[in-house]
Amino acid sequence: MLTLDKVYHAHYVLKEAIRQTDVIYSPVLSDACGCELYLKCENLQITGSFKVRGAYYKISQLTDNEKARGVIACSAGNHAQGVALASKKFGIKSIICMPDGAPISKVEATRSYGAEVLLVPGVYDDAHNRAEELREEHGYTFIHPFDDEDVIAGQGTIGLEIIEQVKDADVIVVPVGGGGLVSGVAFAVKSLNPKIKVYGVQSTGAPSMLNSIEHKHIETLPSVSTVADGIAVKEPGRLTFDICSEYVDGIASVTDDQVSAAILALIEKQKQIAEGAGAVSLAAVLFNKIPDVKGKKVVCLISGGNIDVTILSRVINRGLLMSGRQCSLTLELMDKPGQLVGVSQIIASCGGNVTAVLHERTNEGTAINGCYLKLQIETKDFEQIKLIRRKLEEGGFKVLK
């Protein structure tokens, strides 16, 4: 059984292996969210994620015989690095099964800690199945990424730290994949202060725990698709489902666009890098997915920062669109001199900045001397976008979208 004593023991053991990450108050994000907002920065943890806590504590509790056999794990990336690092410190062999779509940066980081990496076609659950097969074949000790009491206890140490760092917190918001992190945090926090609300957040493209809690039984999703690869889990754990059902106050979901906007907000406003899974907690507060946070003291757990730089620019672009910092407009014009000048002058007078222009002749069925003008514009916010559209229409230009 998971106990508070076990969480405290994990806290003691982990002192030699991890850092106690800072909780940072953000005045700018507080204004945007309408609450007193704090960030628990596990993106600044060693390995760049909270996962090292559970992995290290679990491996520390193995018997000598289990360590001698070596360990195997499955992961989309962050648990992999935690297991690899812990195995290296204890001098034991580690094999990690990862989805073949895992970010290259996470794959290479895992290898850098000395683990043998096997890429498995599919998503996390496919990697899990392959890891189980290899465990049976070779007798490795399996280190589950979330459905294990020792792993959950390790993640629960974050809850102990938050209570100590923000003594009068009202709400804690936690990312959810398989449920190990939110289970540990909620169990530790509620055991010490039941008045604190703990909410989980999933991606709308992978709502396995959300659906399971709503329907009161574990459900398996047919597929998952989300920019938050660290929480792309088809089925929650049985142990984590039971703990979440008892201790978590609710689970929200956010879209990839909302996650992208949260990543952008962290970069711009807080000078912090978060991966998709790490930013879902902030996305939920930014887009009013969590009840009763207005005017409250809220802690968002930023669970990881291992975002692949190859997709970061795409995520930023999505965030710019979602936050009104960038827009696309299509105008129908008469193809004659001076049209482009007129459009440019109006946009400039409104403070917009045109970054791309595409001029197309119209197709069959439209005016013979007509054309389409597609514009990419840098803007300040949605109000400025509305102003630009209105001024263009007042200037006699037909804005299609």
Kindly describe this structure.
The chain has 401 residues and is α/β, with parallel strands linked by helices. Helix content is 46%, strand content 19%. The chain has 16 helices and 14 strands. It has a 6-stranded mixed beta sheet with strand order 1-2-10-7-8-9, sandwiched between helices. The protein has a 4-stranded parallel beta sheet with strand order 5-4-3-6, sandwiched between helices. It has a 4-stranded antiparallel beta sheet with strand order 12-13-11-14. α5 packs parallel to α6, α9 runs parallel beside α11 and α12 crosses α13. The termini are far apart. The mean pLDDT is 93.
List the helices and strands and how they pair.
Layout: H1 4-14, E1 23-25, H2 27-33, E2 36-41, H3 51-60, H4 64-69, E3 71-74, H5 78-90, E4 94-99, H6 104-112, E5 116-120, H7 124-138, E6 141-142, H8 149-165, E7 171-175, H9 180-192, E8 197-203, H10 208-215, H11 238-247, E9 250-254, H12 256-270, H13 276-286, E10 297-302, H14 309-322, E11 326-334, H15 339-349, E12 353-361, E13 370-378, H16 382-394, E14 398-399
Parallel strand pairs: 2-10, 3-4, 3-6, 4-5, 7-8, 7-10, 8-9
Antiparallel strand pairs: 1-2, 11-13, 11-14, 12-13
Helix pairs in contact: 1-8, 3-5, 3-8, 5-6, 8-9, 9-11, 12-13, 12-14
